[in-house]
Each structure stands twice: as structure tokens, then as C-alpha cells.
Specification:
407 residues, mainly alpha, I/LWEQ domain, transmembrane
Amino acid sequence: MNGTNRPAGLDDIAGTATSRFRLTPMVPRDPDEPGRTASTLELFFDLVFVVAVSIAAVDLAHALAEGHVLDGLVAYAVVFFGIWWAWMNFTWFATSFATDDWLYRLLTIVQMGGVLALAAGIGPFFTSRDTTVLILSYVVMRVAMVAQWLRASRSAGSSRRATQVYAAGIAGVQVLWLASLLLSGPAAGIALVVLILAEISVPVVAETRGTTPWHPHHITERYGLFTLILLGESLLASANAIIEALAEHEELGSLISIAVLALVVTAALWWIYFWPPHHEAITTFGRSLRYGYVHYFVFAAAGAFSAGVEVEIDTITGRSALGEVAASYTVSVPVAVFLLGIWWIALRDQADRVVNTAVPLAAVLVLADPVIPLPSAVTAVVLVALVVVLVVRPPVSGAAATGSEEG
């Protein structure tokens, strides 16, 4: 992907002649640009996703606590796809073509508006499978991305063909999303699955028609920042347990213990996620696809973990239709998925045999926790033990860079 475009760093872009509309040519960014970090606009963009993720997690918790496990998980998976895909597409575009002029900012803010509207449509989808607000707000976000890709195509150099395929592919799928609003029943469900597959196929097709550059350090920093947002939801759930404990004095001990264990588990997940240098995990196109797409499960699991903590609180206070074992699985399953996902895409190529045994084993032990007395405590102990292993066994430098390509 590198070396075939006309790369430019931020200083180069700033020095490029602007048009009479005070717009900067959107030339490809230098994938080796030193000191590339997330911009304030990207951080601002992430803020709206806090709202969407929080609402999705709360609605999932309510569905699980009411005993609607399958319906809640399906709704969460669909809603989270919209959140994740909108965030990921902007993130990869920004690493390749970001400028800082007024039009780029404006189109980004339009996408933010779409995220807020999507957040408003999460509740109706959970309760009645009404997709109207979700789809319309999603299309708003994606049309803004079409405009970004079309603009980038004017100055993309050898990446021009890829940018055109991105724009055409995204636009075509949005037309189909709007058409799907005319469907109902099983046909609407089938269309939903087909269109999700169409969405994730667009980057694969576009990058085989022409490549776009990405900055490894920048892109992995962006993923790390979004992970922090999701783990922050778990800390909020921990705080909620303390609030509930102050109001429910008869359950004080159990709720305080849940709060402490949620903090310990969240901190351990943070430690595990950031153990390896992630930029070494996206050295090829195949690795970047694996890293980007499997992160859906990592992100979704992190959000679901916070929902699981809320379910545990409801179970302790007698407001959940789930039994203790089922409620424990709402915590253990997301934790296990998070562990296996991040191990697959970032840890295993930079780990020795001990770590590559310890991480999957920890996931299996966590899944077995609900049938053991004090399951949440066991989960915390297992994760703390895994963190100790990671401290003792540091990443193997350069393993990812020399490993074989995996899709």
C-alpha cells in the first residue's frame, strides 16, 4: 500500500495552495509521517459514539434482565454494527486523506449528527424492530462519507481508482438500504443481513482496485481510543453498582463486591489489550482486514460486558428474570470473546508459547466461571493471573513484522 501514492504530512498539506473556496487538496497522507497522532476533530468525533454505545449497552442490559436473551443479542449485534462500521470507515479514511479545512470538518460534523440520530433509533429497534430511524440516520452518515471519498478522488493520484470504488460502492449500498424500508417480516431480516455483507465487502473490493495508504501508529491509536470509550462504559456500570448499594442497604455487600470486581476486570482488560504494540499487527493488507473486522467482536464484547455488569446488579436486587448462573454468563461470555478476539488479532503473533497458551486458557476458565461459586470473583482472579503472565513475559519484538500474512 505504501510508496505508490503522493504522500503528504500535515505540514505539507498546510503548505499546499488552497482554492478560492479555501479548501486544501485532499492528497494521500504519508504512511510514514513522524509524530502522527489523533487530531482534536477525531477525538471530538469519538464523543458522539459514547452516547450511542451507552444507549446500546443499556438497552441490551434491559433485554437480558427481562429474559429476552436471543432477541436482545440480535438487536445489539445489528445496532453495534451500525455504530462500529460508521466509526471504522471514518477512521480509515482519516488516516489516508485527512485535511483540516472547513469542508472536511463540516462533513465530519454531519456524520456526528447521524450518529446522534442513530442513537435515538436504538430504543425503537430493540422494542419493536423498527428500523426506520436507524436506517435513515445511518444513510446520512454514509452519504457524508461518499462526499469525502469523491473529494479525495480529485487529488488521490494512484489511489484515485480505489477512492472512486469506495464512493460508488457506498452510494449503491445506501440506495439499497433506503429500498429495504419498503420490506417487512422475514424479507426485511434477509435484506438486513445481505446489506451488512455488502457494506463490509466494499473496502475489500476497493483496495483490490487500487490501494490507499494507512499510518500504522495512527490507526492503532484510534482503535485504542475507541476501546477506552467502551471500557469506560464498564467503569460506569461499576459506579452504578455503588449507587445502587447506597440505595439498597440490604444488598450493600454484594453490590460493592460487584463494583470492585468490575473495576478489576475492566483494568485487566485494558492491560491485556494494550500489552503488545498494535501497529505491528497491520503490516499487510490481509492483516489490516483481520485487525479491522475482528475488532467488531472485541468492541461489541467490551460494550456487552458493561451490560452484563448491569444485569448482575439487577439480579442481586431482584429485578432480573435471569437466574444467577445465566446472569453470570452475561459477564463471562463478553470477557471470553474480548480475550480471544484481541489475542487473535494482536497478541498471538507477538507472544511466546507461554502467553499463547495462557490467553486462550484464561478465556476457557472464564467461560466455566458461572458454574463455580463466586463466579465474578473467579473471573477477576483469572484475569489478574493473566496480567501477571503478561508482565513476566513481554511481547516478542518484531514477531508480527516477520510472520506470515493472515486474512
